[in-house]
């Protein structure tokens, strides 16, 4: 379905405003101001500010180089070729490559006009200033994405619960269905949510709240353990083994209690109690039993890593989490 995004709307409106202002100021080549605005609208406030500085500085440097080259070498296509051979590597070296395109437009206008006057150079600077300033003003509006992040967070927590409860069912021998679709969906959700979290930070000039970045990265590490370690180990486990049912119940408890605001301490206590019970059980009597128990212990210790990641996250973000309660 055809749709117009908020960046497209800002670009269109901003370009029109730049055009109107530049024309009202009676600037030569005033339409270039709209082009500069079009190039300067970015996805985040911080990125817009950085790009604006880079483009303005790059354009001024390139304009001065171009003006001097045209003065001393003449206004010919060969001079333009030499200009590009010198200027592009210079701007890249100075990490001002964002300014290559707008500066090229400005310099080519000097070439076409063959105007040597200082007033024309100032005219070009004014065009840059109008285009970049309007882009910055338009980018001061960035719709809040916190609601989307919270929605993603809730969905991810629900998926984690379903994954852990699904593992518990498998260990009880009650469910043989594959969780591949749920794994793929969760992986996609984590990627999208983390992208949103980084964008939120990029939209803040004053204070960077890294809470959501830390949260989604913690969930991503937990997900990697579950999908890459725990689930593959299930294939090596005899589901009718007595330990399986006990561990399955622990997975159920983990799925229920491993939420955003939980400390994880209760689960770690339950883990220690379960391990003590295992130590009191008789030793394996056969090789198959030994291998099965070894695989089960590997699963349990991987799950302990999942819980420890949550405890570490709670410890590092305790102040914020207490405010949410």
TrEMBL record:
UniProt subcellular location: Cell membrane
Domain Putative aromatic acid exporter C-terminal: 146-310
Signal peptide stretch: none
Superkingdom of source: Bacteria
UniProt topology in membrane: Multi-pass membrane protein
Transmembrane segments: 49-69, 75-94, 120-142
Key words, A-Z: Cell membrane, Membrane, Transmembrane, Transmembrane helix
Protein's name in the database: Putative aromatic acid exporter C-terminal domain-containing protein
NAD recorded as keyword: no
PANTHER family: MEMBRANE PROTEIN, MEMBRANE PROTEIN-RELATED
InterPro entries per record: ArAE_1, ArAE_1_C, ArAE_1_C_sf, UPF0421
Organism of provenance: Gottfriedia luciferensis
Tagged with keyword Transmembrane: yes
